[in-house]
Amino acid sequence: MGTLAPPGRTDPGIPCDATAESGRLSDVTERSDADLVATVLSGDVDAFAHLVKRYQDVYRRFATRVLGSADDADDVLQLAFVRGFRSLRQCQNPVRFGGWLFQIVINECRTFAARRARRERRIVRDQAALETTAAWGDLPGRDERESIQLALNRLDADQREAFVLKHVEELSYDEMAVLTGAGVSALKMRVKRACGRLRELLEGVPHDG
Amino acid sequence: MMDERDRDDDFVARISGKLRAGVRGDASFTERVMSAVREEATQARAGHERLWLLRPRSVRFTPLGALALAATLAVAAVGVDRMVRSVRPSPDGRTAAAAPDTVHVIRFVLADSAARSVMLVGSFNGWNSASTPMQAFGDQGVWTVSLALPAGRHEYAFLVRDARGQRWVADPAALQLRDEFGVPSSIVVLGGRT
Questions:
Q1: Which residues share a beta bridge with B147?
Q2: Are A116 and A35 in contact (CB under 8 A)?
């Protein structure tokens, strides 16, 4: 994972317990990630709960935006934490536990999305009909965030992932390259295409406030 | 006057701001995860205790004891050779019956000349798309990976990445099943268990 900082922790110097999310501390324990990882590996399984509390909100946002469903994100996140626990001895740099775990979350999201896309293609065969469905963003009662999420859902998976990492999680392209395994130029192209497509899809959707 | 780049920046800032709002889970999330984690830890401990029996130890023998041990090991070596075999999933998903604790070395193969990378996902790796990459064998688009798996029933599929993106592919050479949503996976049953 190198020196990658997880989303919400763009400054690697920030102590793990000081991470704020949505204006509140996501975990109040004073203990560092490395300390907690060492404790878990020594046999105190319950110490893993501190890491779950610390990272769940940050990664839930990513998974929800990428998968377009809070329920699916919840399932995927649970799988990712369990997989992280199972593979904890492979976390070579526990100081960077958050970034290491984020890679697992991304992989779990990709696997889930690939399976879901497969079954959705079977349910809705006429993609052209979907593409031409008008006014999906203008339904009364739908707020702007819902419309944006729906537009995001319609992007290619690679573009959606890149857009969320760049503009929602605010990672650098170098960080994204480490996490996704894609090259920086490819990631820039995906983000550019995602922005263009979102602009098309959201044209005419009224802004909140 | 606002140019196109400024308008793009404004657009991205507006939608990103909306998407950055936190998404809260329900209060039981941590406990649900920890319940699964504790179960995982219990299973790992049980596996560790089984491995303890196989851990190397220093022992001392009398000359007569050494001869008896050599004879025993010769018999055991024949048994292990029979148990650890390289197999491929057969069309009916089964391999020959074997002892319950047998480890099977199984080779997964997919032929796809358009693939740029192929990952093996299955019940044995938690359907993780990053843990089991397949290797290209030659330049004819044949992808393989060999795994040591315990006896029992295993479901799997291939995640194929090509120029069009990523595809979920069941093994065309093996028994397939579909989940309740119609998503196909393949099955291999090792050691005759179901």
A1: B106
A2: no
- Token pair 């004819």 is found at B140
Residues of chain A with pLDDT under 50: 1-6, 8-27, 124-130, 132-140
Tell me the chain B residues in contact with residue A73 when contact means C-beta distances shorter than 8 Å.
Answer: 23
- How would you label B46-60 residue by residue, b for 16+ Cβ within 10 Å and e otherwise? eeeeeeeeeeeeeee
Of A60, A83, A202, the CB nearest to B23: A60
Q: How many CA atoms lie within 13 A of A185 on its CB side?
A: 0
* Alpha-carbon span B150 to B128, nearest angstrom: 18
Report the C-alpha gap between B149 and B190 in whole angstroms: 8
From the list A62, A112, A113, A58, the residue with the least C-alpha distance to A83 is A112
Cβ-based neighbours of A186, under 8 Å, separated by 6 or more:
none
How far, in Å, CA of A90 to CA of B121, rounded?
A: 19
**Verdict on whether the full-model pTM lies above 0.90:** no
Q: How near does any CA of chain A get to the CA of B46, in Å?
A: 14
Q: Which residue has the higher pLDDT, A62 or B94?
A: A62
Two tokens, residue A97: 């536990």
- The residues that bridge with B162 in the sheet, in sequence order, are B165
Closest listed residue to residue B192, CA positions, set B96, B128, B118, B121: B96
Q: Which residue has the higher pLDDT, B111 or B7?
A: B111
* B154 CB-near residues (< 8 Å, 6+ apart): B122, B123, B124, B187, B188, B189, B190
Pairwise CA distance, residues A206 & B14, whole Å: 12
What is the SS3 assignment for B154? strand
Three-state DSSP class for A196?
A: helix
